Amino acid sequence: xxxxxxxxxxxxxxxxxxxxxxxxxxxxxxxxxxxxxxxxxxxxxxxxxxxxxxxxxxxxxxxxxxxxxxxxxxxxxxxxxxxxxxxxxxxxxxxxxxxxxxxxxxxxxxxxxxxxxxxxxxxxxxxxxxxxxxxxxxxxxxxxxxxxxxxxxxxxxxxxxxxxxxxxxxxxxxxxxxxxxxxxxxxxxxxxxxxxxxxxxxxxxxxxxxxxxxxxxxxxxxxxxxxxxxxxxxxxxxxxxxxxxxxxxxxxxxxxxxxxxxxxxxxxxxxxxxxxxxxxxxxxxxxxxxxxxxxxxxxxxxxxxxxxxxxxxxxxxxxxxxxxxxxxxxxxxxxxxxxxxxxxxxxxxxxxxxxxxxxxxxxxxxxxxxxxxxxxxxxxxxxxxxxxxxxxxxxxxxxxxxxxxxxxxxxxxxxxxxxxxxxxxxxxxxxxxxxxxxxxxxxxxxxxxxxxxxxxxxxxxxxxxxxxxxxxxxxxxx
Length: 478
What we know:
The chain has 478 residues and is mainly α. The protein is 79% helix and 0% strand.
């Protein structure tokens, strides 16, 4: 069941605004905590591993449950699941602000991730079902993606302002509570219910395999340096991740209605969009972690000063996000993807020579370039992933791509932190600049891969595969 197609344009824009408000909260929460990591570490006596888990507990749980939440939204109703997600996210935010130590903070961040998993893909699915015209939907998705990107870019600035005002890191979570309450009321009042015509069956085994794979892989990457890469615990974690992946590849195709729709990946644009989401947001996670530690630990800036230096990222994203949406609507996704990949590569290359005395002008220039790439990437990824897919399965399709985005950020934080830990000689203040250089080169390579995928996934051959998969999916009972 899709929404009433008689909804006026004004009502559709209001629904888009409600979804954007909710996603602004979730997106900001992804990065606002990053700027507070040094403060959290000092207040709760946490090391680098604990700080990594403060970020990744949220992103990991969110990413692990996105497909499940998207599937449940298609089954139970997107509005209903969205409301539950808002209530859970707001409640968990309050608990985070009360955390007595790093372990409780990590646990409450995981609960936040559960609520967030019910918001991200479901909001995109709601937007996709409300805006049925292809060009109108492309513009709406562009606005949605721009707001989400802007929220992530503004997170460090808002966090710096709150900490700079002597409100402490706990205030970063307070601001979610009133926003969640307002969004709850507006969603209940104005967002229509919609669900798939043929609800999908629950796949608990597939969900367990996904959680096991992502958790084991993230744990191995984060703790590998401290425990030793050849230690039994780390080797066992990699083995669990590998076996879980094999289990997914064997088990899921046997199901009539699997949690992970592997057949969607036969669409080159869809699989390419998922890969680009993972790669680009891995760069986002790594960039945010390294930049925060560099500005506060190496340069000695306060949280407020560091947050202000993230303003160029946000400003560039404000410009490039809507521009990307218009380009996708008028010219297709290729130009936006090429620009995003090129910008991410250029920014990373500019930062490979980072030192303790790098000029602020050079930093600002590189941050502007990063913001341009970051703002350009979301709209074409979302539009490409959903193009050709039947609206009845938009929740599942959107959830898979959103999973790639969140898993990418999780792995980006884990890999960047691991590279720094393995390359660091001395303290963060004296050794971070040199230790981060390999990570910047990895990010540069990631941007180059995005450029290559942009060419492949937007070809005529790729579009034919999307059409074929869309027809098959539309004809299935799922």
